[in-house]
Amino acid sequence: MCCESKRRFLLLYATQKGQAKAIAEEIWQQAGAHGLEADMHCISEMDKYNLETEKDPVVIVISTTGTGEPPDTARKFVKKIQDKTLPPDHFAHLQYGLLGLGDSEYMFFCNGGRTVDRRLQELGAQHFYDTGLADDCVGLELVVDPWIDGLWLALKEALQLQKEGMNNAVDAVSSSLSTAPHAVHELNLISEVQNLKLEDEAARGSDVLSQKLDDINLVAPARDTEPSLIHSVPPVSQSALNIPALPPEYIEVQFQDTQGENPHLSSLISEGTTFEVPVTKAVQLTREDAIKTALLLELDIADTAFEYQPGDAFCVICPNNVSEVEELLHILGLSEKGDDFVCVSVKQGTKKKGASRPQHIPERSTLKFILTWCLEIRAIPKKAFLRALVECTSNVGEKRRLQELCSRQGASDYTRFIRDSNVCLLDLLHAFPSCKPSLSLLIEHLPKLQTRFYSVSSSNLYQPGSLCFVFNVVEFPAGPSRPVSRKGVCTGWLAELVAPLLHPSENTLDTKGERFSTEKISIFPRPNNAFHLPADPSVPFIMVGPGTGISPFIGFLQHRQKLREQHTDWEFGETWLFFGCRHQDRDYLFKQVHYLTSILCFLENGTLTHLKVCFSRDTSTAEAARPKYVQDVLRLCAKEVARVLLKERGYFYVCGDKKHMADDVSDAIVDILSMEMEADRLEAMKILAMLREAKRYLQDVWS
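Structure (tokenized):
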């Protein structure tokens, strides 16, 4: 029940993977300590709030998904406020503050938040607090924490509730995102630091604990001079800590004696219709000694209503690794109960506002089903999860280190040893063996197991009833924070699934001696609104796709070849492909593929008019000056590239790695435009921005 109207503010969140919701919940939890109450709702619940009549300040936390779109939960809201018939003073009464979440690895950083922010401004809404844009690439908390710190004073000013002496802890916090620690909403552990030291005086692991002042001069063993996941050094090891408030428990799990069937995988997906389709072929596109293993899979969609265009993406519903699930069950002491059915419900009397069973968790299923198909057990633990794990840890040294990792003082350690090291729950449980979390805690804090996106690498016109895609099998090597190497959740599963097709035995050959498979995977479409061939076939286009970035362009070329065969009287524009890999003889993808047309065949039959390749690791004395990367080859073709883009109004497509390729390609295009137009770099950047706006410079990239 909300308190007085003057002390209330509306808190809206729009989330795709749960991060925006978690941050909104943190704001909701802290509000009470500041004499405020947050009326919190998902932005999609438009029947529970009304911005047209809202008089109190509004706080919005919104993430970004895809290529800069608002999350799915915000689509209806965004569509509503983008109504062009709304007058410019529609929200003139509204005061708001917005926190956008994004990843600067992608072109349209925080575009979900920026879109909403810009439109609210256009409709007359006023900021009561500066917009914050948090970057998941470097750590959301670097902006989120100080933004929340400054929020309370801004809210009180907006509500005209600030009273002298009301909250001394926020006196030093300004709306310009001060980074000063905020003591009111966090627990001060000065006394606990001393208690931990006293309780574990005799323990050999006491080097991870805070030291008393008279202990500082003790010489630590050489192995203790560097921090690690399980070990801290001064000043963190000697600091009083400010840690987050303990998140309230809200999930209850009850084991049942009854049997039954697990839910169908389609029930876990809200995005649309799912299709269970057979994997009919698998080809390894790289040699065994290549640094990365690239696989091509073909799916049979002939008996389904699945539709796609070249350039589209689709999603694969994948499970967690079986051995990791078994290992987690063992650590939780539930090895014998994996196949038992459990009932998941909201805990009676919980203090969590609006608590509900997470949508991705079935009300009733086996324990193994939840850990296999529902929870992202590989997710990097958030600080709130670490805070909750503190309460499940019995060893005082381990307890202290977990407190440090979720504290303000340990922020750099969290970034280095958890975030940047890609540590997951299993890694933590190995590193802190006295930590024994409950199953309910895992359900509360582990996010939904996300589907994985892949670009289509075929044309339904060229291969009716088939869908192909290409991927590298992702490898995570062992390291100081990760005791064992791992493969990617989805790519590792797919590689294991199709191993019989790649390495056939007598059991995988039919009567004609051909490979066959009975394995099926569940998929659903994720159409791309822009990354398609030009509608006019006479328009030329350039494709840049090193490595597996070539994948959608195989579909482009297949489609173009079929159109050329069917419409001999049409005029077709020239096509350019810039491809790069490490070694010509190891990972030159699609150079030769037995049952598909190779890129050399596309070149020979005229479907592809220009092929430019480069090999970054193949060097010799005679070839020292040869270009290594696709951006270098583009510069060598500057006049032709500029001609296609400027004179012939062609299209430019980029697919592949964002950080190590797409940005460099963008820089190369700016240089080319600047040189060929004899314009300064700023003018060239404006031209590139216009090409993007006109959907003639298109990207399908990943980090």
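The longest helix spans residues 658-677. Residues 541-701 form a domain with the Rossmann fold fold (CATH 3.40.50.80).
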